[in-house]
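User: Hi! I'm working on a homework problem where we have to compare a predicted structure to a textbook description. Could you give me the structure for the chain below?
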Amino acid sequence: LCRELSDLETQNEQMLAQMKQLEQEEKSCQELLERYDFTEWEITEWSEQQAVFNFLYDSIELTVVFGPPIDGDVFGEDPSRKIVCLNFESLLDEEKAPPSSCLVQRLIFQFIESQGCWQEKCPTLYHLPQVLRDVSLVVSRCKILGEEVEFLERWGGKFNLLKTDINDTKVKLLFSASTAFAKFELTLSLSANYPSASLPFTVQKQIGNIGEEEISAVLSNVPIGDHYLRRIVSFIHQNLLQDPR
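Assistant: Happy to help. Predicted structure tokens:
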């Protein structure tokens, strides 16, 4: 009996230790979810036939068409229920929207189109949450990029940035600084995987000697990651356009 009690106590201690570890892991996961909250979608319809989700201030709409409900599935939410169609549609009025919003929209749809057939990626309801997460992540990154462009359009003068222009998925940055006797245009090619990869660029000299070689040397020291575009502008300003004294 004593041995059985001892074994039970040992088992209880092990269970308590496991519960403590699970609680700690749950806390860590919760903190991670709060830090990286990529839930960028809102559900606007869920009927027997379809579900409709909106992203990015209702400027992108995803319509998911369901197959027939499975027997016994009263609410039509059985994870194995088939999805017969997924369709993304832009609701952005590009004629009225600011250039930064149009850029963000193009990059998101660049990602959407690059994935091929979405119905193959999401054949059943079980796969839908992953699709919503994948799209949310790209929307979140591109939305932050749009905010960076708006920041540069408003405050670029502090970084010797004369003009910010958007052409399709390229951002043209015109720098000018009398102290460095330099004026040049830097064109950065953006993609939907921003900011997880370095940006291809070209430089057009207008005044002075700052060209592709000098810009390349500076950009090689800018690590990819959050606010990559803003940091590129800041690094160019600090390293090439400040008074050398």
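For your comparison, note the following. The two ends are 86 Å apart (CA to CA). The CA atoms of residues 88 and 113 lie 10 Å apart. Good luck with the assignment!
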